[in-house]
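G., the chain you wanted modeled:
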Amino acid sequence: MKPRSLWKFSAMVAGFTFYLLFNEPGTAQAMHIMEGFLPVGWAVFWWLAFVPFFVFGILKLKKMTKDNPELKLLLGLAGAFTFVLSAMKLPSVTGSSSHPTGTGLGAVMLGPLPMSVIGSIVLLFQALLLAHGGITTLGANAFSMAVAGPFAGYAVYKLVMKLTPREKLAVFAAAFIADLMTYVVTSFQLAVAFPAAEGGVLASFLKFGSIFAVTQIPLAISEGLLTVLLWNWLRSYSPNELSLLKRETKGVESK
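Predicted structure as tokens:
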């Protein structure tokens, strides 16, 4: 990646981040799944479900950066993109919010396991700095946004690339599905924790999912388009790093 281009992009991300930190109203009432909202048993369950992905993600990241240290720039870019997009929140279901996730880009570039680490770090910083999410609910939020979303997005990217050579379409689909899958899982997490008096978990899931869909489908489309624009930028200014990442992922898949 050319240093001048990297600095320009970093300055843009930094400026946008400071805007979100100091100028956005209503932060405390617009969260992922907010602190203390889940019953203790479910909070622990989602932590236990998330931790194995985090551990394997760290091992994958160590291997990637050891073999190709220059990829650290793209790791930072994936983290910044995820942080900025997922901080753009709209109040939705009580105790939660709708927002882009930004994990589709990282899933395409790095694979889903590294995004379990990057996404969870983003969520931790948002919980501590923006009151966006929480520590007890970090496992649930990380499982939906940093695990389920990236894995779904990566699978769709690979599927589209097998069916058609249109890479931009594959990138759009990955970002779109990663965003929506995050909220499918969030709806499920809320449904099992708070089943409806009539209809149980299924009725609760349909209720949460339908409310999220009103805001999340347009957001997912917008995120897909923005991700394609950034992908084109990377194609122009960082082709060598993207080639290295492709070799990394192909090497893992062939083992």
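The chain has a mean pLDDT of 82.

Shout if anything looks off.
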